[in-house]
Amino acid sequence: MTDVPADGAAYEPVRVPEDSGAHGAYCVVPPGGPEEVKSAPGSVRLVGRRAEQDLVNGLVDDLPRRGGALLLSGEPGIGKTTMLRHAAARGEGARVLWACGVESEAVLPYAVIADVLLPFRHHFDELPSAQRRAVEGCLALTDVAKSNPYAVCAGALGVLAAAGEEWPLLVLVDDVHWADPSSRQVLQFVARRLATERVALVMAARGGQEEDGIRESVPHTVLRPLTDDECWTLLRRQALDRADRAADRIVRLANGNPLVLVEYAAALARTRACGAVPWDDSWEAPGPLVERAWRGMLRVLPARSREALLYVAAGRTPQWPLLQRVLASEGLTTADLDAAEAAGLVRMRDGACELRHPVLRPVVLGQCATVRRLEVYRRLATLTSGELQTWYLAAAAPGPDESVAARLVSDARQARQRGALAAAAPGWRRAAELSPDPADAARRLFEAAHDAFYGGTARDAAEWCEQALSHSRDPLLTADIEFLRGQACTWLGDPGRAHQLLVGAARTVESVDPARASQLYGAAVVPATMDGRIREACDIAARCEELADGTRGIQRRQAGVMRARAQVLGGDVREGRSTLLALLEETRGRTGPEERQVTMEIAQGLSWTDEGDLARRVLDTVIEGMRRDHSPALLPYALLARGQVEMWSRWPLARADATEALRWAEEFGHLAMTGYALVQLARLDALRGDFADCQERVAQYERWCGGRLRGLALFARGALGTAALAAGDPEAARTHLEAAFALAEETGLVNPCLMPWVADLAEACLRTGAREGAVAVADWLREREAATGLAWPAAAHARCRVLLARSAEEAADWLAVAERVHADKEMTFESARTRLVGGEALRRFRRPSAAREPLLLAQRTFTVLGAVPWAVRAEAEVAAAGHRSAVHGNEPPAVALLTPQELQVARAIGEGLSNVEAAASLFLSRKTIEAHLTRVYRKLGVRSRSDLARCLARAGVTG
């Protein structure tokens, strides 16, 4: 019986023989190319794999209600394609779309994602205009001046979500490690955002080759070797049993690989059919067992079949017409492939000829001499055109060839113009390999690294910069390469090396190009800070500004910003703030990417100088621009800068921003931003009293970053100290906080706004009997207050003096001082902490009536914030002060019930965006926005957008 989906296309099950891909009788298999098929009743007979089946079954069975993604990985022949076929057979009632990465097509931008999206072209018109143009441009359906890769990602998500609304959709992508880089980027993006869609994405990749963060982005399982019992089960299907000594040898050779089992069983059957003695010692020689089995199959083919098979392996497209032409040019015909097809080496269907398994490609090509292989590529080049011809010519080049290199450069430039940076990068790199002139090779490797870095693969960028440096003899080009290499090392979590490289390069070119040296010194400031070298950061920032003197525009502003930020971190707050405010005025109305980055850095610097409200407004504008332009590369940085401001009083917003920043940082593979996000979330956990969550965040940070980000280590220890104090363990708190304070001194950090746990150290010292330690902390805060004029050290110093007070009058006086500071500066949690210690001190000095008001105010604030242990402590003090009725009715605001992503959606809608606009802004699908919005309405008890806006405004989420 044939099922007919909504679009009227019919799909039928296909019966296939048992082979290495499907160890069973019935399954739905992809046609010759990546086409859509409708699943039908049937099954793939699997051996073992119960845990993997459960994962796949759960994902597919939930498809009518929600979606998700899964990555299957393992060695060649381990059964990944089998699991995909099992998913297809399981997906009864769903529409199934198959795509496959092909090694030879990995250089063609968006090749795999085109196979995924083009069947749903009728949904393109439903996308926001910017996304539709980007998607059509990347698929070469329209001419686009420059396509934004993240608009392509968001558009692909929108198309698949719309298709899923029409009919549940199961997308299966085999050999994703051979998908082109641009397609991998889109698949990774989509995979993280399918929870609310009726779309399931199952991908298979060879173990160890899940590049570009796909493994970290989605649920992932590794297919392990079969057990001995499972191996024997599979061999029994091949008519072998335990009594057969040769079969026992197969089990030992296969090492649990099902493909090896099947192939050797077939080889044994052929050997016996010929009457030969099976299994001499050569079968046990070390080497890739699967390849060896196939080499034996190749050797028995007729010579003409082996020659024809060579063109199938070398071809970058499986389409039949090209294969027919190239075989005819060599005096061969497609009939010469019949023997290969009968042996199960190739499959011919629906106008295409494919190798049965990807590992056959290197086996077939490795069987012929290098000269012959180059001839095959040259023949293919004469019968093709465009990018395909260029890559055949590149494969055919025995050595440097400038004419081919120039063609690769032209194609890479076109890919860059389409926004396919990840696809352009390999073109530049291959062009460099074919460049006769070392200077050209250096420049092209630099271009490859540039596109790799801005395409999201910083690791490739760093490696190709290394290669470019080995060719470069131009000191200015070398400086540019070092600049890019330093940026890549920074984001890869090696700021110490980045700082060293950038400063070294700056000194090299300082005498010949001061402006370029200024740029390099400026770029070294951030990694120096991350590496805990704030004093050095101040020195190189000063040199950066000195060399930029006389320059104009963006470079002078960048130098000024780096110097002012370093001053603020190093303690010269007043001068740094003045410079930053002046530079902010200069940047008003400037919207280019570089200007936006400068504005973001100014805002973050101002947030360290008591200008939090201004910084938040500026960051709101910057983030809105990044979302609007589909330019999320710096979004993690901007979100974390805003979250740092929000952490003083608006915890739900801070958590929402930090959570989104973490998601982006992991997606980009930015180790430094990942660590920054984790320690920021750890501090939020600590403030709320979630000790276990705080510990887990810090453990994640240490797993990600180890000891490579010294500048973040003190924040991690500070979070643990605050969490321990909230949990009632002052000994542990003191240990952590003293370590954090020592790290701050070691790195040169003296801005107390970045050390909000310092007052906790005074309290931990006092509670463990170390009064002199608490006095020393109070004295440090007083000195910082005088040196910087900042509100936070003034308020914290007053709190410490309350803790140290020896009389009720002294405690009340210092509490009044703290209250005056808090009245001028919003620090909601810190204000409540001060009132708590003030009330405790007054009650201790037998002034219960005076203690009640600050204690009641503290208890209410803690309850609203969700700071549970602090609220419990305050409530106990309220009762001890003689307030007999417990304080009730001060529940956290309803927005505290929202998840971080629900809050971001509510925020966007509350600011007046439509569902479509919110989806584009947050890089989500419209359906995801609608699903989140439904939950937001229910949790907040509102029924309209205007009600939502008012609710958010009351909670301080929107203006």
Automatic annotation (TrEMBL):
SMART domains: HTH_LUXR
Protein name, as recorded: AAA family ATPase
Keyword Amino-acid biosynthesis in annotation: no
CDD domains (alphabetical): LuxR_C_like
Alphabetic keyword roster: ATP-binding, Nucleotide-binding
Pfam families linked: AAA_16, GerE
Domain of life: Bacteria
Positions of the HTH luxR-type domain: 891-956
Record-linked SUPFAM superfamilies: C-terminal effector domain of the bipartite response regulators, P-loop containing nucleoside triphosphate hydrolases, TPR-like
Alphabetized PROSITE patterns for the sequence: HTH_LUXR_2
Gene3D superfamilies membership: Tetratricopeptide repeat domain, Winged helix-like DNA-binding domain superfamily/Winged helix DNA-binding domain
